Amino acid sequence: MVQKPEDQNNKVTDLPSLLSELGESADFTSEVIQINNSKVHLYYFKTLVDLSLMKKDFLPNLKKAESPSLYDINLSLPFDQIQATSDLEIIETKLLTGFVLILTQSSLQECLLVPLENGNLRDITVPEVEFSVLGPKQAFIEDLKTNIQLIRNRLPIRQFRMIELEVGTLTRTKVALLYLDGIADEENVNTMRQRIEDVDFDHIDDSSYLNQMIEDSTLSPFPQLIDTERPDRVAAVLSEGKVAVLVHGSPTAITGPTTFIEFFSAFDDYFSRWHVSSIIRIIRLFAVAFSIFATAIYVAVLTYHSQLIPRDLLATLIQSREAIPFPPIIEAVFLELTIELLREAGARLPTKVGQTIGIVGGIVIGTAAVEAGLTSNILLIIVALAALASFTTPIYRIGNTIRLLRFPFLFLAQLWGLIGVFIGIGFLIVHLLGLTSLGRPYLEPIFPPRLADFKDSVIRLPFSLQSERPAQMRPGKTKRFNEKNAKRKHDIDE
Questions:
Q1: How far apart are CA 111 and CA 27, in angstroms?
Q2: Which of 63, 229, 379, 486 sits 20 to 30 Å CA-CA off 28?
Q3: For bias kind Basic and acidic residues, which ranges apply (predicted)?
């Protein structure tokens, strides 16, 4: 069916100048087709349209039209979303997104736009960043429609809502805001929508751009929104009352509001027994604390508090450092920078080469540094364990934050010892207390304390005990299911 826009201020009579300007590009094509001895002009970008679809379905059916009128042409074409318009802005937008413009001599007031976008997209693959042994094996791709379909397949309900937005004055990137009507808090939806609409930037290439622009505090090293490549995770957080944002051209979605603890919860925690998942979450939190403070405590103790070291261990430390010409802070910074260099080199090189560099480089450089007397073997073990512990974070962005925090604590330990470390912890806690995610407390349920939300934070209780949605989301419907019915088990003869 032909769709006509309401606004027709910019008439098609201004079209020749637009087509002349677009024609300066080598991939802009114009053709003339004969229908009943009348000329029909076609204009399109051959790099944006599906040429095989044009030859197979578009041109043969176009030539079968009974007359060169737009009405008969529309009836002959087997395509949806065909649009008749005289708005110059719409014509420009559609041409630049893979539409074919049809202009006839008999219709000078409007033209026809036929969608023939190129559908060459990569296939849906397994998640690479958030890979899990158990659970679904689908990840988002760069096509917005496909990503929305993946989520709709998991939430086939009429309450599913999508708001289309556009950002980027040059890229005109399509953005989809997703939520469940009646469950998501309207304030969260309106806040996210307003922040996206307020973005004033020329190009948006990925959801990471948008993520940084709509956060509550852009100066904080801590991410306040979670980005994920898993459709199942997005569907799960939508059912909790959160909102999600998809960006065309990006294989990751943005979800919020979120909490600090949520960054250490992998989605495959829900595919294992709750006992195992709870223990693994605690191990992750311990690993993060070890990664941040281990090297700093080593420097503080050896520099200012050697009396705290047990006598047997002190002898081992003295023996390992007797040939080291540098103070502990120098060798600690040297090893930390070496680890970061190896990590960055491994990430930028091809996969197989990167793995070889990470393993061989770490062994060779570490062994050579100890034998050359540049660092002690004990500190090498501590730094290696701290680097290994930082990889336990399931969300990539929080892992980068953990890597960054190690260096301030190192220098505070060198300046004031353990007192400096505790001063740094104080500043860190104050900073976290002041952070919010879409206006919601970042440290919830720890502060403000909400005991009901502890059932799925540091530990994960059984599903039968998670009958209510998180209070922080302020959902329209708090109950997820009837807790009494969930606990009741029927016998086979009932």
A1: 21
A2: 63
A3: 480-494
How many Å apart are CA 109 and CA 102, to the nearest integer?
12
Are 301 and 331 contacting, i.e. CB atoms less than 8 angstroms apart? no
Tokens of 458: 């540091």
pLDDT digits (tens, 9 = 90+) for 428-479: 999 999 999 999 999 999 988 888 888 889 999 998 888 889 888 888 888 8
Contact 44, 116 (CB under 8 A): yes
Handedness of CA 300, 304, 305, 310 (dihedral sign): positive
Dihedral through CA 23, CA 24, CA 25, CA 30, nearest 10? 20
Asked if residues 256 and 242 have their Cβ atoms less than 8 Å apart, the reply is: yes
Distances, alpha carbon 229 to alpha carbons 108, 124, 283, 382, in Å = 47, 11, 24, 33
Listed residue (75, 19, 76, 79) closest to 44, CA to CA: 19
Q: Give Cα 187 distance to the centre of its chain.
A: 22
Express as a percent the part of the chain with pLDDT over 90. 49
* Mean pLDDT across the chain: 88
- The mean pLDDT of 349-369, rounded to a whole number, is 72
Q: Cβ of 54: how many Cβ atoms within 10 Å? A: 19
Per the CB < 8 A criterion, the answer to whether 146 and 119 are in contact is no
Q: For residue 176, which of 187, 200, 160 has the smallest C-alpha distance?
A: 160
Place of tokens 């937008």: 93
* Residue written as token pair 């009507």: 181
- The reported pLDDT for the residue numbered 132 is 85
Q: Are 19 and 33 in contact (CB under 8 A)?
A: no
Peptide bond into 445 cis (omega under 30): yes
Query: Do residues 261 and 192 make contact, with C-beta atoms less than 8 angstroms apart?
Result: no
Output the CA angle 399-205-30, nearest 5 degrees: 160
Residue 42 and residue 140 in contact, taking contact as beta carbons nearer than 8 Å: no
